[in-house]
Amino acid sequence: xxxxxxxxxxxxxxxxxxxxxxxxxxxxxxxxxxxxxxxxxxxxxxxxxxxxxxxxxxxxxxxxxxxxxxxxxxxxxxxxxxxxxxxxxxxxxxxxxxxxxxxxxxxxxxxxxxxxxxxxxxxxxxxxxxxxxxxxxxxxxxxxxxxxxxxxxxxxxxxxxxxxxxxxxxxxxxxxxxxxxxxxxxxxxxxxxxxxxxxxxxxxxxxxxxxxxxxxxxxxxxxxxxxxxxxxxxxxxxxxxxxxxxxxxxxxxxxxxxxxxxxxxxxxxxxxxxxxxxx
Length: 279
What we know:
Blueprint: H1 2-11, E1 18-21, H2 30-46, E2 54-59, H3 62-75, E3 79-82, H4 87-95, E4 100-104, H5 105-113, H6 129-143, E5 149-153, H7 158-163, E6 169-170, H8 174-178, H9 200-207, H10 221-224, H11 227-267, H12 271-278
Parallel strand pairs: 1-2, 2-3, 3-4, 4-5, 5-6
Helix pairs in contact: 2-3, 5-6, 6-9
């Protein structure tokens, strides 16, 4: 109910869609994610909120991707799959019908920079393997004229953002927001860039199959990915999910203690103490 009320408050403040996150601790439970999503969407339906304005966010785990497919195919619910890590991973999410994907730039870049246990010095340029990975996802969406948006989050600095062309949206932290007067926020279509068709990211996107067939792989989506893509997904997605779990349990503990304190105060009877003092 709190998520619904928060979503309504946000919808009153913005004209575009609002992202509503399912509890990420359900990341390995498709049924739980589907049920929570349906319960939230039903509340928005009853409040006459149009479906495109309330987008449900699921983690892009295998179960999250399968939940997305059920919610889009059977219930026409807009889905945002978060923590996408590679082109193949993005293809599987698009195959599931997600209308929005998001990629966490910092952990993807860091994974390539510290790959195989050795820190490698990669200049922040189109040739950086992290930049290439993210740009190939953008290019895949554009080359196939897909109705899918790509959001970037966890951007370390402006140099990274300036290397990525055709981004639909970017989530900026306070430090980057404070610097917006010094930097343009407009992104541009990669097709207008010089030598676009000869870039490694273009070639990767062009070679990727569309439509993909990851969801029908007999051994599961994860095993359909390359060993490198599985390692990247594990490092980015599951480490972040573990951090989220610790953070959410900490918040719940604080709330639980506050509620218990308030209940004890409501139940407290001051009469015996006051009576003793009077005697």
